[in-house]
Amino acid sequence: MTTYLIRRTLLLFPTLLGITLLTFLLIRLAPGNAALLKGGGGESGGRAMTAEVREQTIKLYGLDKDPLTAYVDWIAKVFRLDLGESIVDHRAVAAKIGERLPLTISLAGSALILSYLIAIPLGIIAAIKRGQTVDRAISFIVFVLYSIPSFAAALLLILLVAGGDYLNLLPMYGANSINASEMGFPAWVRDRIVHMILPVVCLTYASLSYISRYARVSMLEALGQDFVRTARAKGLPERLVILRHALRNALIPVITVFALELPVLISGAVIIEEIFSLPGMGQLMFQALAARDGPVIMGITTLAAIITLLGYFIADILYVLVDPRISYQ
Amino acid sequence: MNPASANHQTYAQRLWRHFRADKFAHYGLGIVIALFIIAALAPFLANSHAIVRVADGRITFPVLLSLEPIEWRFLIYVLLAALIYFFRRKLQTHPRRFLLLTCFFVALVELWLGFSHPINDPSNDRERPSSFKLMPPVAYSPIETTPDQFSPPMWKHPCGTDSTGRDIAARMLHGARISLSIGFVSQSIALLVGITLGGLAGYYRGWLDIGVSRFVEIIECFPSLLLILVVINFTGSQNNMFCIMAVIGLTSWTGVARLVRGEFLRLSGQPFTLAAQAIGASDFRVILRHLLPNALGPILVVATFGVASAILIESSLSFLGFGMQAPTPSWGDILSESRRYIDFAWWLAFFPGLAMLVTIMSYNFVGEGLRDAVDPRLRIK
Question: What is the ipTM of this complex?
Answer without folding.
Answer: 0.79
